[in-house]
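Dear all,

This email documents one entry for the complex benchmark we are building for the journal club exercise. For each entry we list the sequence lines for every component of the assembly. Then comes the predicted three-dimensional structure of the complex as a token string, followed by one or two observations. Please use this as the template for your own entries, and keep the labels exactly as they appear.
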Amino acid sequence: MKFNGKAWKFGADIDTDRIIPARYLNTSDPKELAKHCMEDADPSFASRVRAGDVIVADKNFGCGSSREHAPIAIKASGVACVIARSFARIFYRNSFNMGLPILECEEAAASTESGDVIEVDMSTGEIVNVTKGKRFKARPIPPFMQELIAAGGLMESIRKKGAV
Amino acid sequence: MKPMTITEKILARHAGVKEVAPGELINAKVDIALGNDITAPIAISEFRRIGAKKVFNRNKVVLVPDHFTPNKDIKSAEQCKILRDFAREHKLKHYYDGGEVGVEHALLPEKGVVVPGDLVIGADSHTCTYGALGAFSTGVGSTDLAAVMITGELWFKVPESMKFVFNGRLRKWVSGKDLILHIIGEIGVDGALYRAMEFTGSAIDRLSMDSRMSMCNMAIEAGAKSGIIAPDATTEAYVSKRAERPYKFYSSDAGAAYSEVREYDCAEIEPKVACPHLPENTKNVSDVKNVSIDQVVIGSCTNGRLEDLEVAAKILRGRKIAKHLRLIIIPATPFIYNEAMKKGWFDIFLRAGAIISPPTCGPCLGGHMGILAAGERALATTNRNFLGRMGDVKSEVYLANPAVAAATAIKGKIAHPDEVTK
């Protein structure tokens, strides 16, 4: 899986209320949620984001609530991948489970600015900041999580095991 | 066998192995799986999407529509109806609705649904609350919940444990809320990321169940996977009359490995206030001066229990709240509501000028029943003060214990309880 898109840079501790505020949680329709994605961090995000863009953030991205609506909103907004210095654990788990590609990379998070063109190769974890001419290597995805992705996510792996 | 922490022992037991070590991936059996009106609709949709027909155990899948109830709008009503229909279809034993609903993390311990030694997952980040009973309990997302509803199992990475030792006597007006805010102020909102927080020491031994639940409840605000307190006589007294299943007390071995041990002298800990917009922005209440407040909320899965309402009633007795201020009191469960009424606290609250709400998560997450306008400022006994958490993105939330909340409601600005009781 390879992506190429424009970076949207966010700071540290972007919580799930900023990714998708609770006032919109009376639905779980991805299209509805996407309309309000990142609204309390950048009100213009949802209308300006383009398919294939990348969110780049500092530490502890997705902290707070367990709402899966957060990675759902991001994915439905067209964002191809989230790169952060670190992720909060429920957000990390949710993203793998519902198929939003995410990578941890301190260096890429530190040096990327909004608008930079970013290339990501999910299979190798290589991140290229095309604008700045820099290459980074994300922290490898644990083998277990790779297997989960290869199986098509948690629900598919359950179906394949014949548990249904 | 190598020494293990209480967390490692519970995980090993549920994985069917003798021992586990931090970092290890395990598949474990789940005792209770919880969902609410925000998270369960997605889980139910995933459950149906892959063709599941039956839940793994109708006694172990628990649904509590507590966030936007009583239904705040048509869309919320539709979400709640998904839970209601599913609960009926699968004959779920633990489905709470209407006059039986309470804030999930206050309700489940109270009903004896979660017990010591359990492995609990909940599609709600504050599921870590049940660590107060000596259970391993962690928040997950809707897809994880769907997986457990079908299989009764889930994968876990065994977390490293951090130990927090509290010794000495608590100062007046200090509760479990202040101890956990104190920790978060020190280690930050990701200070315990991926790890289990274990609370111990002579001050924890003397702590009430309600205060223990407040502490474990906010482990997630330090990024932790779970919070836990080894069960003791206090736990036994609480669970023996409630538990609907046999339970087991686990404790950490001497020599168990911790990634970090931190010690505290409670004599040095004052009532705390977490300032906007992160729970780590904690200060001593006496250092937060002249912050005028528009709304005070006493309630939530953190501080909506009897002990919390009792201290609020003690301070509000015979006093009136500030003219410009709205005080919203939310007993967390129907039982707490009824007890508070029988003890005469409702009279005290109403005479003081408070609004008493039915049990709901409501304003804590900016759902309903007390939303803030731009420029407004709240002090709440809840757990998160993120930007826009309780309403407009230009509003502010301060977090504190119920005694500080009651004092603040009377003064109209953030106040130490001593300021109104002396």
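Observations: Strands of chain A lie at 2-10, 54-57, 81-84, 102-104, 117-121, 126-129, 134-137. Chain A touches chain B through 39 residues (CB under 8 Å).
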